[in-house]
Amino acid sequence: MSSAIAQVAEVDMDMVQHAKGVFLERVIAEHEFRRSEITRILDNAHIDEQILETISRPAERVLPWYEYRKIFLNDARIRGGVEFWKEHVLEVTSASEAYSVAPELLVAILGIETYYGQRMGGYRVIDSLATLAFAYPPRSAFFTSELESFFLLAREEDIDPEEVLGSYAGAMGAGQFISSSYRAYAVDGDADGQRNLWGNWQDILASVANYFSSHGWQQDQPVIDRVSLSRTWSGTEPPNSMNLDETIASLSNAGYVLSTELSGETPATPLSLEGEDGQEYWVGYHNFYVITRYNRSIMYALAAYQLSQTILAEYEQS
User: Fold this and answer.
1) What was the pLDDT predicted at 183?
2) What is the C-alpha separation between 124 and 156, in angstroms, rounded?
3) Out of 65, 142, 150, 259, which could bridge 179 as a Cys pair, Cβ 3.0 to 4.6 Å?
């Protein structure tokens, strides 16, 4: 029995019901939801053991970089990105220009998240969020907040909270926005009065672009560089922090060999990942940090960047 399943078996359902009750009373008082409706929806929400098991073993925690990379950088996903870009060139171009975000990055994010809208998740979002809010203590506070945002989102966008499907963690649509991000960053790209992140590519691409723009994407600036090590390198593996706690100058002094025209004061972060032929060393810059705001994972950000560059090269040659 996995630890996650064991954890579900040990859940005190009385405590789950208590947490539901506290949540219910608060959102009714603060947001004036109808008691009968919210009570019915929460009573029908299913505490799903599979969700608890899945969240305990995300790929970026259990796979080395070279295996994680292969999930996303393969011929089918690259070819799919080129085809998607061609099919939706007007929407991609419009979103890229409006928000000053690289078009290839917009395409790559959709490729990684949902295979260009083809795999948007089969879990009921209400089940995912209720499970993680009430039966997953390590992140209960976060998912309780997301459950609250989900009810607000459903009311604002006039969607049925019991019908919406998404990921095991409650992410929705082609760009896999969590509820709070949907409310904060989704855009009505075609001005039809609704922010539809499931089937409206103007809304979807504008929303992903707005997310990156809002988090500080700098157009035409570098993202990350592969580096080598000099003989003066200390031999201490970097902490693989997403924060830009170093500079190009400090890393050069520490023995990282960089080939860049950026100034020595440029913030940066050193990274070490397990490649197929040994350790790979990288230095990420501001735009790399921005990609990690979409998904708090170094491997995710590097895979997204590499996929974007490969799609771009294939698109320009097609």
Assistant:
1) 98
2) 19
3) 150
Residue 1: the pLDDT is 31
Phi and psi at residue 136, to the nearest 5°: -130, 80
Given 53, 91, 104, 113, the catalytic residue: 113
CA distances from 129 to 100, 234, 295, 317 (A): 33, 45, 18, 43
Give the CA distances from residue 294 to residues 79, 81, 156, in Å, rounded to whole numbers and listed in that order: 23, 19, 23
Is-contact 128 166, C-beta < 8 A? yes
What is the reported pLDDT for 5?
40
113 in active site: yes
Report which of 192, 221, 199 is spatially closest to residue 291, judged by C-alpha positions: 221
Cα separations in angstroms, 271 against 15, 295, 298, 306: 42, 17, 8, 15
* 82/89 Cα distance (integer angstroms): 10
Q: Model confidence over 30-59: pLDDT tens digits? A: 999 999 999 999 999 999 989 998 888 766
The residue ranges of the chain whose pLDDT is under 50 are 1-9
Q: Are 266 and 253 in contact (CB under 8 A)?
A: no
Round to whole Å and give the CA distance between 225 and 28: 50
Pairing of strands 278-284, 267-275: antiparallel
pLDDT of 11 reads 60
Type and span of the H or E element at 58: none
CB neighbourhood size of 61 (10 A): 10
For residue 9, the model assigns a pLDDT of 47
